[in-house]
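REVIEWER CHECKLIST
Item 1: Sequence provided? yes
Item 2: Single chain? yes
Item 3: Sequence as submitted:
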Amino acid sequence: MFWVYGPKQPANLRTRFECEWYSDMVLFLNFDGVLHPNAVQFDKKNQPLLEARGHSLFEGSKVLAEIASDFTSLRLILNTWWTYAIGLDGCLRHLPKVLSSRVDGSVLPHSSLCRTLPHRISLATDAVANSEPPILILDHADARYPEHVLYLAFRLEPQVGLMDPQSARAFRRFVSRATERAARSTEHR
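Item 4: Structure as written out by the authors:
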């Protein structure tokens, strides 16, 4: 169980996130370095600008959607600075419906709710530490997670992300193995 800011509540509230651990798998998803290169800036109107020639925002979302289709119980928690910049609803508008429908909340609140700058990695690490598996993290390789959660993290080359077919296949295997481990652990309960 961990705290998230969710789409089904007022923006200033957070709720405890609980899932059916025997059937649901949670993926903490970063956008930058995963769904597009880690080269996004927000302009003065909080519009995202990708500064990577030959790439487009969310170009890897189709790949993630294909992978997610193999894992029907996969739920998403956004673990991205985008929610801090444009809010959860703004993030959901950028994702294709097949992915946005799986989003149950965000680790980071909108900036209007923060007195100080939150630490995305620390919040995700705390959530993982205070929850039962299966929680997985999908992020870029420059994200500095502590060693004790690295086995749950699949980290991608930040300028390529899921657009690399070999990385996408490896991520599919990573989720598949985690699903198998979770199924085996429920058999022993």
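Item 5: Key structural point noted by reviewer: The chain has a mean pLDDT of 86.
Item 6: Recommendation: ____
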